[in-house]
Amino acid sequence: MSEAAGITEDAFLGGQLRLKQKRSGHRAGHDAILLAAATQARAGDRVVDFGAGIGTAGLALARRVPGIRLDLVEIDPELAGLARANAAANTIAAETIVLDVTADAQAFAAHGLGPDSVDVVLTNPPFNDPARHRGSPDPSRHTAHVATEETLHAWVHAARRILRSNGALTLIWRADGIADVMAALSCGFGSLVVLPVHGEAGRPAIRVLVRAVKGGRAPTRLLPGLVLNEESLVPKREVRDILEGRATLPLAEP
After folding, report:
1. How many Cα atoms within 13 Å fall on the side-chain side of residue 123?
2. Are the beta carbons of 152 and 130 closer than 8 angstroms?
3. CA-based nearest residue to 208, from 152, 247, 167, 165
4. 232 falls in which pLDDT band (50, 70, 90)?
5. Residue 185: which H helix or E strand, with range?
6. 3-252: CATH superfamily
7. Digit-coded pLDDT (tens) for 171-192
8. What is the DSSP code (8-state) at residue 91?
9. What distance in Å separates the CA atoms of residue 174 and residue 177, rounded to the nearest whole number?
10. Would you call 57 exposed, middle or buried from its count of C-beta atoms within 10 A (0-12, 13-18, 19+)?
């Protein structure tokens, strides 16, 4: 399959962002846009997107908050190449780094990501439980979706290491893994804000968005849940505003 046949160009944020991605394998979706809309950042902040893929979440955040210093960290060289091309095509300044998020501190420092050097980390880690989720035979899709027992703790640890004191980590995870999220954040993070995400009203949450502050001491806050779809399964108006870049989520508010 030629590159032209194997690559699509898709619009995000109501057309404000156009991203090239592989036709097969892991494809960017609503999770990345919700993550960007939940991330608080200001111009001048150094922001790192862990497991950036083609750059969707980090670039969406950069489109909303001009002037951030953005690093896109991705283990797959092909996806990192697409992320680099996407940043350039959308005239967004970003550094793309091919790096395993579970690498040691020395590897991070070699790429300019030393301890206490970053203001914001956002991440959509692999989060499907391999005991209950049959992994895709496509390597990139498997890597993007299926977690090992240590994945979440390793990614949170890496974020804690590079964040400055009072720097923030924002992540999205499956809702039935909220206990794992709280356990991973219990060392070194506080001031948690948790937003459950429901596919439909009256149904259990399918995702949680969590913002945590390195060294934070404020009590944990559980926000009212976000319901994505009407009964007809059409996205709710407020959700469309978020997905099209006209609104943010409460976690992004100062």
Report:
1. 27
2. no
3. 152
4. confident
5. helix 178-185
6. Vaccinia Virus protein VP39 (3.40.50.150)
7. 999 999 999 999 999 999 999 9
8. T
9. 6
10. buried
